[in-house]
Amino acid sequence: MTGDQIIIFDTTLRDGEQSPGCSMNTREKLEVARALVDLGVDVIEAGFPIASPGDFEAVSQIAAKFGDRTTICALARSREDDIGRAKAALVSAEKRRIHVFLATSAIHREFKLKMDKQQIIERAISSVKLAKEFCDDIEFSPEDAARTELDFLCEVVEKTIDAGATTVNIPDTVGYATPNHYFKVISYLKQHVPNISKAIISAHCHDDLGLAVANSLSAMEAGARQIECTINGLGERAGNAALEEIVMAIHTRVDYYGVHTKINTQRLYPTSHLVSSITGMKVQRNKAIVGQNAFAHEAGIHQHGMLQERSTYEIMKPEDVGYIGQNLVLGKHSGRHAFRDRVVQLGFPLDDAALQRAFDDFIVLADKKKEVYDSDIIALIENRMADAVDRWKLVSFHTSAGSSAIPTATLELQCEDQPILCDAAIGDGPIDAVFKAMERIIDLTAKLDEFDVRSVSEGKDALGEVRVTITINNRLYHGKGVSTDIIEAAAHAYLKALNKADHDRQSATDSPAARVTPQR
Ligand code: KIV
Ligand code: ZN
What we know:
This protein is α/β, with parallel strands linked by helices. It has helices at residues 26-39, 53-66, 80-90, 106-113, 117-132, 150-163, 179-192, 212-222, 243-252, 254-257, 268-279, 300-308, 336-345, 352-368, 374-387, 430-442, 486-510; strands at 7-10, 43-47, 71-77, 96-103, 138-143, 167-172, 200-205, 226-229, 328-330, 372-373, 392-400, 408-415, 421-426, 447-455, 464-472, 475-483. The strands form four sheets. It has an eight-stranded parallel β-barrel, surrounded by eight helices. The protein has a three-stranded antiparallel beta sheet with strand order 11-12-13. It has a three-stranded antiparallel beta sheet with strand order 14-15-16. The chain starts with 6 loop residues before the first strand and ends in a 10-residue tail after the last helix.
């Protein structure tokens, strides 16, 4: 392995989940955590345990399940109660880290915290010490570090390392830094903090100016040895640095950077797909590394070059990132064994029951369409995974529409094992009618913000994928559904999004301490 190892700290389940509409339930978070472990990340920031009982539960379960293989990290403000919740959530993890943060910039000190520099230093020290009583591995973040006076930043970093911080993270909380500026901040810390060699310097960049990845790589050149990032660059506002881009830059330009990561790059594409499917957050077609077009060569001159020698126009091989193209794999007569082998190759460790369900779906699909592609199989499996956690299921639907008919939908839904409920509605078109009938049954009213349709593979008989974004009570919810029937795909997508809203409604009634977004 070339040079130093760069620690990949994944915060998809914490900072990524703060992205509007991307909240996940515990089962979904466990699914993502499993994928992150398989991907080989060094640290999983599993959540912010004080934020809600659901966050606490998810961090506890991830700690119990994966804390022997990967370091599980929990976030806490510099407060006793936050640190207490983080400790309690991490008890069952063998490898554990508490990530304590406190804002240090003048703007945050004056307007948010109303604390002076001395108070900030004292609070940061006592919080790190308190966390240190529980575990050795402590990360401290001076929030909004990129806008903090350099000498004060040095003082905070030095004192928190003395107090026991083993990683000092330098967040560009508002995405304000530029590559050269951030390089200078990290270099300054290296030169002016006397005990800096006792801790690992970490980069944490937001993408408000589209510079998160460039800034992170710059920090690495200046000496940072941990990078905090998220799958697909998910995160607040414009998001965080994209893990797949950081990793492939390090991997592809090893000649230049001379460092390495422990990431299994072939799991990048499947992990991206999984996160997109669970959160409902679409990956743009031309997104670097994991976008659908990332390895498509359209121009004739490029195709010609590629045929002669791939490296003329390709700096990475699609297979290096686990890219799944349009491989035609199976047909109606492919047996269960062939199907199982393919599912395993695609990276889904399904148990017998899940495999059987996926195979049943495959047979139904193979009956409808002659050729089944890898992308179809993945869509079917992810669809089932998403469904498994939902309270409301679609039992049946019927629509009628036409140029001289009033579009009408009749729908049957079932909530867990309660009796099936049926209702009907009219709408602007059959899909609108389905959505209205669904809202009547579930008793939720939503505003439809986005509606996207695409085909999963090729041909007129292809599986259609519908993604919706809806707003209920000022919160965004995403949903995705697939079917060869676009109305059915839309019904699944809408139901998925309504199920998420229903889950929040349930949590609000179940627990008086419903989700609070703590003020940082
Ligand atoms: O962006 C930020 O400052 C954060 C901290 C909590 C590290 O996410
Ligand atoms: Zn952040």
